[in-house]
TrEMBL record:
PANTHER family (UniProt xref): FAD-BINDING DOMAIN-CONTAINING PROTEIN-RELATED (PTHR47356:SF2), FAD-DEPENDENT MONOOXYGENASE ASQG-RELATED (PTHR47356)
Sequence ranges assigned to domain FAD-binding in this UniProt record: 4-375
UniProt GO MF annotations: FAD binding; monooxygenase activity
Family: Belongs to the paxM FAD-dependent monooxygenase family.
Cofactor(s) annotated in UniProt: FAD
InterPro entries: FAD-bd (IPR002938), FAD/NAD-bd_sf (IPR036188), FAD_mOase_fung (IPR050562)
UniProt keyword annotations, A-Z: FAD, Flavoprotein, Oxidoreductase
Pathway: Secondary metabolite biosynthesis
Listed name of the protein: FAD-binding domain-containing protein
């Protein structure tokens, strides 16, 4: 009987989160990372919300994250601004209020720092293999597991393989090819890589020591076919995202890639773009330490797995960057209960995979996970996708709507919602809408939740199903009532101020 082992392709956040969870549960694994370093500095930042932080707290990692902010607390104010940098509205005590309500706030810092924390926490670092680029996967006949091939000629045997290798996932391509050969029609022929769409490109990066910058404040800036997010981080850092709409949507292989020359030209063209009344994006560009220009992909694949192969994170679904930070200010859609923005969603997906493995292991008794059949693996993967898919789809739709709103694809809609409805609703309603998406979030079912004082319980923390249902009804009633009042006031305001709506946004 073969021993249970997970082969993880990729060495990013999803891969290292899963590796840590497997270690916590005594499950064997190996990580195959194509790069030469486990935590390279590529200019990426990361935002961890309540839903992701709750699981990281279960993993014993919250204190390490909080230590990054020992000298300066996380930003607590978000300003919404017009294209000229003038103020529309502000959301104050954002992180503090989230922590009071739900037990955890918001942390924004270098992705590299999170990777290092995850790597340092591993006990079996010898299972993290670098310069191992996956080239193929063989399914062992009779449900005997998988053999993963690397470009250097090495092979690794295991029970299942998890593709955590990003947007351009080799594992997903191999999985699709195997399914087309072994079970034609398993994947929808109409769904292919050409269905991946790109509407925007994004310049993002990290700057440091920008003279005169006000710490503790973040800025979302609307624009005409553009939008910006500028976030204050620890160690006097600033993280920026400048999203620019493409002249027309691009699909699949037609989605452009960008060179350093393209990035330099883009930054020069937008150098004088206002962020606030006092700062332009160029003043931040000029103090950058690392940056890049990249297309923003948008997709959720219909199937995430085939037999002993599953994809998680960006390999299965990809969303835009700005959603997680602007949802509180742009109330176009009911907030997604999963909160699975980027890394937070990957953390939840990993937790659900572990939960499914633990459940089936408990049912199998002394055998635990050794000798899993293909049918049992399929059940594990089906449970994982079923618990995550709908929320991933909701986030992609919501991301699209919010990016459209911020970039003023419909100027009238942008003005009405951001200038009138959001300010009328007020901070409590906005934070309530933001927080509602956390309540149905996943956790590690087999690991105790550390005690954190909070005003609102997650769905899985409520004492009984009956109480849970009643709570949802009451919460929904309160929300509908608040929104109803807000909409009535917004309509009255719109009627009074209609002549002014033809001005600039």
């Amino acid at each position: 009987m073969s021993k249970f082992k997970v082969i993880i392709a990729g060495g990013g956040v999803t891969a290292l989160i899963l590796a840590n969870m497997l270690e916590m549960h005594g499950m064997d694994y190996v990580v195959l990372e194509s790069h030469s370093a486990i935590a390279p500095q590529v200019g990426a930042s990361i935002g961890l919300f309540t839903n992701g932080l709750r699981i990281l707290d279960q993993m014993g990692l919250l204190e390490s994250i909080q230590a990054i902010f020992a000298d300066a607390p996380p930003s607590d104010t978000m300003h919404m601004r017009r294209p000229d940098g003038t103020l529309i509205s502000s959301l104050t005590e954002r992180s503090s209020q989230l922590e009071r309500r739900y037990g955890y706030g918001l942390y924004f810092f270098d992705r590299q720092q999170l990777l290092q924390i995850l790597y340092d926490n591993l006990k079996h670092k010898n299972r993290i293999l670098l310069r191992k680029k996956v080239s193929g996967v063989d399914l062992v006949p009779g449900g005997g597991g998988v053999t993963v091939h690397c470009t250097d000629g090495t092979e690794y045997n295991g029970t299942i393989v998890v593709g955590a290798d990003g947007v351009h996932s080799v594992v997903r391509s191999v999985m699709r090819s195997l399914a087309d050969e072994l079970e034609p029609g398993y994947f929808d022929p109409a769904e292919s890589e050409t269905e991946v769409v790109c509407h925007y490109r994004c310049s993002f990066g990290i700057a440091k020591h920008v003279p005169g910058w006000e710490t503790g404040e973040d800025h979302t800036v609307t624009g005409h076919n553009q939008s910006q997010l500028v976030v204050t981080g620890p160690q006097d850092k600033i993280y920026w995202f400048l999203c620019d709409r493409l002249p027309e949507p691009k699909y699949g292989s037609d989605i452009p890639s960008y060179t350093r020359e393209d990035e330099a030209r883009f930054m020069e063209q937008n150098h004088d773009l206002p962020v606030t009344e006092k700062f332009t994006i160029g003043q931040i560009f000029d103090r950058k330490t690392v940056s890049t220009l990249t297309p923003l992909h948008e997709y959720v694949y219909k199937k995430w797995f085939f037999r002993e192969i599953i994809t998680l994170g960006d390999s299965a679904h990809k969303v835009w960057l700005l959603t997680k930070y602007t949802r509180t200010m742009a109330n176009t859609r009911q907030p997604n209960p999963m909160g699975g923005q980027g890394a937070n969603g990957a953390i939840e997906s990993c937790a659900e995979l572990i939960n499914a493995l633990v459940r089936i292991g408990a049912e199998r008794g002394e055998q635990r996970l050794d000798g899993l059949s293909t049918e049992e693996v399929t059940r594990v993967f089906t449970e994982t996708q079923n618990r995550r898919e709908s929320r991933a789809k909701q986030l992609v739709r919501e991301s699209h709507d919010i990016q459209s709103l911020l970039a003023s694809e419909s100027p009238f809609k942008t003005k009405l919602i951001l200038h009138y409805i959001s300010p009328i609703l007020g901070q409590k309603v906005l934070l309530g809408r933001l927080g509602k998406k956390f309540l149905g979030a996943s956790k590690l079912d087999s690991v105790p939740l550390p005690y954190r004082p909070k005003e609102v319980l997650f769905d899985d923390e409520l004492p009984t199903a009956a109480t849970k249902g009643a709570s949802k009804v009451l919460a929904r009633g309160a929300l509908v009532g608040a929104l109803g009042v807000g909409i009535v006031l917004a309509i009255k305001t719109y009627s009074l101020w209609r002549p002014r709506l033809t001005g600039s946004t």
